[in-house]
């Protein structure tokens, strides 16, 4: 049986909004952005808007500037109607980053605010990807709209099918291109970079390499997600305090949020492709602590030459994965 799509409610989310999201999900099965009879924005207006309005009234006025539309006197569904789901997700991510950098005091109120906005951003993203219980394909497009919409299983890019359907939905494809694309088998599991078979019929080496490292990719993604959700203390749960500290300081040096699912997935893929092993993570955090090669070697119980070799290889590691002073 196909697993039902669920909306992520972040730990610490406002109780009123948490309950509203649960009620929303209980009713959302026939709703979608494509349905005229069951437009999902109408359900947001009925269920989510009142809960958000009640929550925002409990906060000082300055918080409204960090919620899309509220600074202009609009509610959640009105903002979505004006800018669309994809845009509101991008805007809210930017506003939340700005809040964390400028206002967040890490007290209980601010932690609840971040968790609540993360939950609403997740809801908007899931609504954008949501398909109705029963759908028909776009006229002239021989594609099944009920196929999986989302990220490539091996990275943070949209699958070929999801990317194409998003383009169709935005009416950015002309009729001639639609007819050409009908003849292609668009993957609903992989992006163009990671599709198993290339357009010329040959096997894709990028797919084989990424598939071999899938378990490590999922492990790193899980660590990133845990640490991103709770930045205040090390949360990666790797089993090693040095590795946990690496993820802790890595997330502190970035503005990526839990709702930035694609960015986190791409970062996990980059970590694996760069061969950033746990040993190298330990070396990076000890170097960040100010230890020299000999001290790092003694701390880890390895030869100094091994540390030197690892540091040379780390010189080519993408800056995103390096720890900033």
Structural features, described:
- Helix content is 54%, strand content 0%.
- The chain has 325 residues and is mostly helical.
- It folds into three domains: 15-129; 136-202, no CATH class; 214-321, no CATH class.
- The longest helix has 22 residues, at 108-129.
- The model is unreliable at 134-148 and 171-183 (pLDDT under 50).
Shape: flat
Low-pLDDT segments, ≥5 res:
134-148, 171-183
User: Tally the helices: what do you get?
Assistant: 14
Q: By helix and strand content, what is the structural category? A: mainly alpha
Question: Which key terms come to mind for this protein?
Answer:
3 domains; 14 helices; flat; mainly alpha; single chain; 325 residues
């Amino acid at each position: 049986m196909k697993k039902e799509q669920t909306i992520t409610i972040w730990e610490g989310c406002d109780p009123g909004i948490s309950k509203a999201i649960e009620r929303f999900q209980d009713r959302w099965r026939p709703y979608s952005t494509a349905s005229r009879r069951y437009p999902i924005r109408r359900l947001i207006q009925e269920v989510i808007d009142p809960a958000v309005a009640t929550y925002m009234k409990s906060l000082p006025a300055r918080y409204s500037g960090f919620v899309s539309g509220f600074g202009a006197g609009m509610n959640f569904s009105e903002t979505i109607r004006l800018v669309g789901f994809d845009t509101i997700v991008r805007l809210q991510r930017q506003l939340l980053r700005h809040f964390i950098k400028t206002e967040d005091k890490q007290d209980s109120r601010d932690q609840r605010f971040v968790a609540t906005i993360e939950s609403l951003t997740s809801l908007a993203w899931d609504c954008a990807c949501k398909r109705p219980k029963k759908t028909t394909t776009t006229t002239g497009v021989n594609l099944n709209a009920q196929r999986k919409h989302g990220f490539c299983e091996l990275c943070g890019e949209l699958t070929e099918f999801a990317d194409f359907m998003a383009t169709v939905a935005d009416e950015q494809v002309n009729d001639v291109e639609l007819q050409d694309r009908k003849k292609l088998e668009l993957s609903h599991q992989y992006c163009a970079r990671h599709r198993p078979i290339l357009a010329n019929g040959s096997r894709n080496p990028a797919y084989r390499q990424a598939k071999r490292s899938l378990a490590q990719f999922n492990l790193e993604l899980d660590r990133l997600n845990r640490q991103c959700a709770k930045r205040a203390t090390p949360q990666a749960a790797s089993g090693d305090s040095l590795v946990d500290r690496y993820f802790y300081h890595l997330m502190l040096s970035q503005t990526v949020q839990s709702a930035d699912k694609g960015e986190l997935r791409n970062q996990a893929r980059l970590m694996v492709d760069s061969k950033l092993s746990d040993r190298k993570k330990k070396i990076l955090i000890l170097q960040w602590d100010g230890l020299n090669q000999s001290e790092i070697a003694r701390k880890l119980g390895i030869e100094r030459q091994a540390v030197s070799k690892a540091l040379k290889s780390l010189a080519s590691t993408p800056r995103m994965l390096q720890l900033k002073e």
